[in-house]
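4.2 Preliminary Data

To establish feasibility before requesting continued support, the project team ran the inverse folding procedure on a target of 194 residues. The structure was first converted into the token representation described in Section 3, and no sequence information of any kind was made available to the design step. The complete token record follows.
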């Protein structure tokens, strides 16, 4: 395994277990089995390392979302697949997802701005799919698409607070449930009997 990957894995584990502020560079290099020089060859600071944890997960999830969004599946199936995928990929690397959401306020402000901008692009693309479905009559129109996105992604962002791999549900099952809940919440209400 490459030095960069060793450092990233060690940092993710330690940040998830101890917290970003309580973890020292020395602990990261000892856990990774590398030298400080090895760490600093790839990352200028512990803050840069935290930023890369965010960026790596966000890049991966954004690429997967775009592939699904641009596919020729019917719109409801694309939205279902996107929601299931972001849950499954978050659970697959739950330590990184936990670090992502718990340590965000600790990033320096300029990096927070950059992460927010990238995450906003992700959310806006998914929101656009909801709006497209609303315009086409596939989804209910009485709930603003922004609210739908904020509600569902707010729940996804808290997976690290309650999900445990040894629990009753696999990541795939949780992803399926989350996606089903979103699609059901968007289902148009049948016309009132007259």
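Position-by-position output of the design step:
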């Amino acid at each position: 395994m490459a030095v960069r990957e060793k450092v990233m894995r060690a940092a993710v584990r330690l940040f998830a277990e101890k917290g970003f502020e309580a973890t020292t560079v020395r602990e990261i290099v000892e856990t990774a089995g590398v030298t400080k020089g090895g760490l600093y060859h790839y990352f200028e600071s512990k803050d840069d390392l935290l930023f890369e944890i965010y960026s790596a997960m966000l890049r991966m999830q954004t690429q997967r979302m775009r592939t699904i969004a641009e596919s020729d599946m019917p719109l409801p199936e694309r939205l279902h697949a996107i929601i299931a995928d972001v849950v499954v990929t978050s659970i697959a690397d739950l330590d990184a997802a936990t670090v992502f959401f718990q340590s965000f306020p600790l990033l320096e402000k300029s990096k927070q701005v950059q992460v927010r901008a990238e995450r906003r692009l992700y959310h806006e693309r998914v929101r656009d799919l909801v709006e497209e479905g609303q315009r086409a009559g596939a989804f209910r129109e009485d709930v603003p698409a922004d609210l739908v996105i904020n509600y569902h992604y707010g729940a996804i962002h808290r997976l690290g607070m309650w999900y445990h791999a040894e629990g009753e549900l696999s990541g795939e099952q949780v992803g399926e449930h989350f996606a089903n809940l979103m699609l059901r919440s968007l289902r148009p209400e049948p016309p009132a009997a007259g």
